[in-house]
Amino acid sequence: MSDTVSTPRSFQEIILRLQTYWATKGCAILQPYDMEVGAGTFHPATTLRSLGDQPWAAAYVQPSRRPTDGRYGENPNRLQHYYQYQVLIKPSPPDLQELYLGSLAAIGVDMALHDIRFVEDDWESPTLGAWGLGWEVWCDGMEVSQFTYFQQVGGHDCHPVSGELTYGLERLAMYILGVDHVMDMPFNDPQTPIPLSYGDIFKQTEEEYARWNFDVANTDVLLRQFEEAEAECQKILAQEHVDPKTGKRIIMAHPAYDQCIKASHMFNLLDARGVISVTERQAYIGRVRALAKQCADAFVQTRAGGWRPEDAA
Amino acid sequence: MPDLLIELFSEEIPARMQKRAGEDLQKLVTNGLVEAGLTYRSAAAFTTPRRLCLTVEGLLAQSPTTREERKGPKADAPEKAIEGFLRGARLTRDQVEERETPKGNVLFAVIEKAGRPAADIVAEVLEQTVRNFPWPKSMRWGTGSLKWVRPLQSILCILTDEAGAEVVSGDIDGIQFGDTTEGHRFMSPGRLSVVSFEDYEIKLSRAHVVLNPSTRAETIWNDATNAAFASGLEVVEDAGLLAEVAGLVEWPVVLMGRIADDFLGLPPEVLQTSMKEHQKFFSVRNPKTGRIERFITVANRETADNGATILAGNEKVLSARLADAKFFWENDLRVAKSDMSVWTQALENVTFHRQLGSQADRISRIATLARALAPVVGADADLAENAARLAKADLSSEMVYEFPELQGLMGRYYIEASGGDQAVAAAAQEHYSPLGPSDDVPTAPVSVAVALADKLDTLTSFWAIDEKPTGSKDPFALRRAALGVIRLVLDNDLRVPLDRMTHNALQVVLKLDQWRAAEKTETGDKAKQFARQIEVAEGVIASVGPNLCAFFHDRLKVYLRDQGIRHDIIDACIAMEGNDDLTLLVKRARALSETLKTDDGENLIQGFKRANNILTQAEEADGVEYSYGADAKFAEEAEEKALFEALDAAEARIAPAMASQDFTSAMSAMASLRGPIDGFFEAVQINTDNQTVRRNRLNLLSRIRTLCLSVADLTKIEG
């Protein structure tokens, strides 16, 4: 751990340093998934790749959406669109905690001055049928990351176990940069000719989305899209494993999973519109989980999911 | 005799699991050692966030050699029997002895087990322990299959004697036992090797790890109270939080921080709850004002700036948290001051239980009941009903949504802010009480009315839908509710028959009044339909009522047993008329319990039993009941006459005492019969040839029985 790392000057510098750090530690630096998701965990690079026995190491930024958290850009900490930094390594290396602390040092957290703690936090995702044990990591009393050893995903036991790190980028960056309101945070270097703050980029969109999420989104359309996505997911998974056109064994786990992601996001939007009652809520979550499980079942039938031709015999 | 030191070093163990894990480690390892023949002098376990440690002193260096002798079949027994015996003993025919016995020659096997070195046994026991450790939740990591609470990184296992330390050879899932551990993650990184427990503890403390959790807790508490005291303040005690925080740090450093002025106006409970739940801070109070003004946080390290950076960070996080709390508080106050019915209406959409309707339905039932109970507890009926309607309104508030443990208390603040009656506000806070056998019982009449109504509604509702507690399962905390009713009645000296209370509550739950009213206004088939409804409801009441009463009596027994009153004494009182008046029942039981503790009382019971036995037998044999007509003129012996006089005197005291429910006097009068009864039995033979005298004596015994049974059913008393 180096103590002489300079303090970063912008949000993007923190992201770039994390990318560089995890690249030097051997992770494939992936790009964000091109769909609306509620958290970095939904990226197939985490959800699906944590299944099966194939080694994996990936890191990426994932824009995430939580419609109910929208506050028109006024709350200093809450956003309906924000960024997570996600690392997934399978099998979890024995020095994952050290690697993680190294990443904090790399973005300018001086371990000699700060109080870093691993505080119990069991992770569970009812929509993904997943759970794991780990911690929330505190820096001076503030939660800066989630640290989880995946035990089960999509109803399947994880063998080997993946180690997952999730950084809430805005909150972490605000702390490192000493900013009190997310909209005031420098996005690029404040010394450049055209300095841009987080607010310059996102204040207006937070307002637009908050209005749409809460009051305008057409709930009939959302509901229909939820059901269409659910039906499509099941239809995809019901196809024969062998493609009649190419004669190849092609299980379409990823396209099906896209539909699962879509259904999940539709559910989040419906929830923000306040049209889902407490009792219905559980039922919707159960429907998404059923899709996630079927996608997981399909993925472990694929090569990336650990299937071998000899398994067919 | 060697000493054993074990350390299981892992990634951070949840604070709440550490204490139990230390105890389990000690129990499992020492039990395993003893089972294998290794006794020891003493053992102790210690835990930190990253390690479980066990030290065992004065262990046997090896287990003793054991000899077991097994008797087998006769030497000339069938071949199969002998084969089976040899297989069981794992010996061959020439390895077993033939001995002469009175029954002939019999085979004997002597199985000798050589003692084993301590190290071998320790390695086995430790592996067993680790593989079967009872963590509340455990996990796998990497490619392994071992389960532990969090990844297990190293195992230290050494035996130390005069000659020095020796690593026990062994490994679990690839983790080799060794003699090294690690110091503080940040302040003293790197591994260090140790030769004994003493050496281990010293080296750890040099490496910024305080091994003993009690020492860490003491340090935290002392430093915290000193820091607060220096500013004229005091730390709010919280033993649970102290234990938790001591489990989050290996090197505790106490820091006291400020709460921004903006937030000092929040209710102290809100500050306290928010700081504790989210940040694990202690609250620091100004003893003069009672307000929470500062906080104590416990860091896990020393820093060059004496914690300035850490404290600044914590203050910042706290401000963000409290900004949320303040936002809730202000929003809630706005609602409370304008119109709290928004909250009660919102509860119409909150399901209480699928079969029991919404929270609003439940509140309406409680309000009806509170009104009915008001005269009994001396409360104003309108106030009681109003209090019941508002008592749970805060369930709709933002603050209670965020911090459910503040329910009731927030209700009080909000009702006060709305200008509501003080008694109504107090009822909001107090109506959940008492929550257990030692929790305070409300005494303000309005609070008592709502508290009783709330619990009676819960009990009768779940009884009506047949959701009773079974065995260890009591998901709706009905035992607690029944105990609550009992304590409310007893502590407030309420004279209200249980029967009537449950009956009323059941009528409300089953909407009997509504059906009756509907029946009257309807005609024809509709009226018939309502009549059937009424019949069903009455049937439920008839079957549920007594059942629920018995449940109350069971709970009462448990409660009184904890206060040292025997169950048979309670049974003797429950068997009496008026047993649904709990206050009366308990008064009687207490008086009887006290009486039975005296010499007279205890002996009187024997006298009573003797009288009762003789009488019962005679009645069975003669086929008549001796109940009346004992006459002093047929008394022959002096002791007989004396008993007549004593009974006359006692009756004269007992009857009025019972009439005024003065059980103590009644029972002391009853106990005073002990001498005359004993004297009577010593001097007088009941069964004589003179039938008139015999009948007279039996009728006299009947007077004893009748008199004693008028006080309590002494036939239920054991012993």
3D architecture notes:
- The complex is a heterodimer of chains A (about 325) and B (about 725).
- Chain A has 8 helices and 9 strands.
- In chain A, helix 2 (about 45) links the parallel strand 1 (about 30) and strand 2 (about 55-65).
- Chain A is α+β, with helices and mostly antiparallel strands and about 325 residues long.
- Chain A is about 40% helix and about 20% strand.
- In chain A, strands 1, 2, 3, 4, 5, 6, 7, 8 and 9 form a 9-stranded mixed sheet that branches.
- Chain B is an alpha+beta fold and about 725 residues long.
- Chain B is built from 26 helices and 18 strands.
- In chain B, a hairpin with a 6-residue loop joins strand 15 (about 280-285) and strand 16.
- The mean pLDDT of chain B is about 90.
- In chain B, the strands form 5 sheets. In chain B, strands 1, 2, 3, 7, 8, 9 and 10 form a 7-stranded mixed sheet that branches.
- Helix content of chain B is about 55%, strand content about 15%.
String of helices and strands of chain A: HEHEEHEEEEEEHHHHH
Gross morphology of chain B: extended
Number of β-strand runs of chain A? 9
Radius of gyration of chain B (Å) = 37 Å
Distance between the termini of chain B: 52 Å
* Sequence stretches where pLDDT stays below 50 over 5 or more residues of chain B: none
Multimeric organization = heterodimer
As a percent range, the share of helical residues of chain B equals: 40-55%
Sheet with most strands of chain B: 7 strands, mixed
Q: What's the β-strand tally of chain B? A: 18
Of all chain pairs, the largest interface belongs to: A-B, 38 and 42 residues
Task: Quote the average pLDDT of chain A.
Answer: 94
Tell me the structural class of chain B: alpha+beta
